[in-house]
Specification:
This protein has 91 residues and is of the alpha+beta class. The protein is built from 3 helices and 5 strands. The chain is elongated, with a radius of gyration of 18 Å. It starts with a helix and ends with a helix. One of its GO terms (cellular component) is cytosol.
Length: 91
Amino acid sequence: MNKGELVDAVAAKAQVTKKEADAVLTATIEAIMEAVAAGDKVTLVGFGSFEPRERAAREGRNPQTGKKIKIEATTVPAFSAGKQFKELVGS
């Protein structure tokens, strides 16, 4: 499912126009990204949590040459599915 298909599904479930559903979905995604980028954790009970996670520096390899390279430490976004989401997918 891509964003357009998700907008269609949200519009149908919420009985709103596609334009309204797109605006709300876009605002929601932007708010989550801004909060995580600022270092906050966003929890949607039953759905899951978005949070920034630290990734330690590590050694990697250049796939073309096989030469060892150093990969710097960084912060990456992470998602953890909630209990209800896991149960729905697992059934």
